[in-house]
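pinned: reference chain
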Amino acid sequence: MLKAVLFDMDGVIVDTEPLHRKAYYQMFNDVNIEVDDLLYESFTGQSTINICKRLVDHFSLNETPERLVSIKRKHFKFCLKTILISL
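pinned: its structure tokens
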């Protein structure tokens, strides 16, 4: 029987924003693009797939948005695992 459902809006229980930022910038490096702070900040509140669609359009990338999502998630999982191991 389900007794509770827990929703964590980022920053309430765990602040993963710094990990997401690091993962995004690692992905940017992997695909050889330079994203300035103004562009990065414009991503706030958007889903990863929408951000990646914008990047593909903005930089005329040959990668698909789905591939960028995969790269970013790989980096995020590594960052998260590194943090959890250090706890």
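why pinned: The two ends are 31 Å apart (CA to CA). Helices lie at 17-30, 37-41, 48-59, 65-86.
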